[in-house]
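Late entry, evening session. Most of the bench is empty. Finally got around to the prediction I had been postponing all week. Sequence below, unchanged from the version circulated by S.P.
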Amino acid sequence: MNTHRNMIAKIITVLSIIVCYVSSEDCGQEELTNCARPLQILQSTSELSIAAKKEELEKLCPDLHNGLHCIRSYTRRCMTLQQRNQFNKMYHGTNQVIRDLCKEGQYQDEFLKHAPCLRVVQAEYEVCTKRYQETMAFINQAKTQENVTLTEDESVRTVCCSFTEYLDCSEQAARKTCGEETAQFTRGFLDKMSSTLVKTYCDSYYKGSGRCREFESAAPSLGLSTSLILSALLSYLLLNR
């Protein structure tokens, strides 16, 4: 139990305060973040429908593929084999979404079918991100100021409950305007794009679990950016070298 708690505490630390550099100048957090920048368009709920037409998707996909190529190059140069295997496992969902989204087939067709309505819901999606940003700001403050106290367990619960509420909020926004089918697609899309690292350690923090009561009655939240997730993964791997 203590081992599990310590691991969760380590994860939440790298999620809330990303300060990570490795020995080589071209193997730092900044380069990895730059690699991930093209992917951030897929990590924001407010940009789920950025490509409402196939032509728009065809323009977007080369940048997404370039981002993935840059990340692969980074992991080969800057990580050990064990670190690289862990990283690839954690980032598998994002890779899979981009592959499926950028090739002709069922998933691409489904995305394009839902995208026009999802564009209408953008304003509501932005509500889903606001409270998370405030929550993370509070956690950062608690980590840096002596007059604000927040235990590691409280930090874990706060981020994990926010993660759950983010998925619920996005799904509900899509359901309200676009219907059940689009809501389920939205949930699946965002769930795949989320870090395996986060999902693994937040698995028991779900609506109705009794661990997120105050969040269940509050405004939903969250917007985990690609750069935040990548930085968290990098920090996690370095902490476990």
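Two things to note before I forget:
Residues 22-239 form one domain.
The CA atoms of residues 141 and 148 lie 7 Å apart.
Will write this up properly tomorrow.
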